[in-house]
Amino acid sequence: MNKTKLLYITIVFIVFSFFAPWIFTQPNLLGLDFSSTGQIGDTIGGIMSPFIAILGIILTYSAFYIQYEANKQQREQFNKELKSQREQFLRTQLEHQFYEMLKIHRSNVDNLVCYKKNDLYNIQIPFLFDLFEKKQSKGIKAFSHLINELYFYYRIVSKHLSKEETKEKMSIAYELFWSGKNISSNKELKEEINLIKLADNKAFKGHSTQLSHYYRQLFQTVKFIVYHKDIKASGKIKTISFLQIIE
Q1: What does the pLDDT read at residue 22?
Q2: Which pLDDT tens digit goes with each residue over 131-155?
Q3: Using an 8 Å Cβ cutoff, are 119 and 110 in contact?
Q4: DSSP SS3 for 47
């Protein structure tokens, strides 16, 4: 029942109780004369008892209803606080897990090592200078040298397999870059690779060991973000963008 309606009914009964003795002791159309039935006090008591009882019932119901509403509000407030605490816990747990994965990723980046290609090396005169300089590049600086190394291997492959498609040449060059293995059957290419290895023992060592850790952890981090049900789509985009920035 609506609280306002309940209040109106209660007020009506209270007001009516004041006028009930006078109303019921007046001559009426039914011919009933309550003033001659006994003492006026007994009459008033008999008349008022039902209304007082009804009023007591209404007031008791009101008290229980108000208590019920208060308990309901307390439960709703408790559930909201519990939900908020759970969301905060999950958010904290999520952030902690993400930053732990990010920490491992950064460690993998910092541990990357490669030799810088010698700028004096000439592919046409391959044995005049070492292919790589003796000084190593580490961390994020190593990426540019890794790309240069891959491009150099592609140039060597293209020199001997000029008629092959670009995709095939890149596949051979990437295998040289990744594992140091030559998957081509071209004899001239094999000979040049072997000669370069003899001239510079740093060449064609492959980077699968260190890059596999890097790619695996990066994949796991992105997968964690994309498939996590508690991260909204907009949050996933922002997090991945953040991951790209720190690369």
Answers
A1: 64
A2: 666 777 788 888 888 888 888 889 8
A3: no
A4: helix
Strand (E) or helix (H) holding 182: none
Distances (CA, A) of 15 to 8, 31, 63, 162, 182: 11, 25, 20, 108, 104
pTM reported for the whole predicted model = 0.57
- Distance from C-alpha of 176 to C-alpha of 203, rounded to nearest angstrom: 10
Alpha helices in the chain (DSSP H): 3-24, 40-110, 142-160, 166-178, 187-199, 208-227, 233-245
Q: What is residue 218's three-state secondary structure?
A: helix
pLDDT tens string 107-123: 888 888 887 766 655 55
Half-sphere exposure of 242 (CA within 13 A, CB side): 12
Question: In this structure, what is the dihedral angle of CA atoms 102, 208, 228, 85, given to the nearest 10 degrees?
Answer: -30
Q: Residue 80: count other Cβ atoms within 10 Å of its Cβ.
A: 10
Give the position of tokens 């890097």: 214
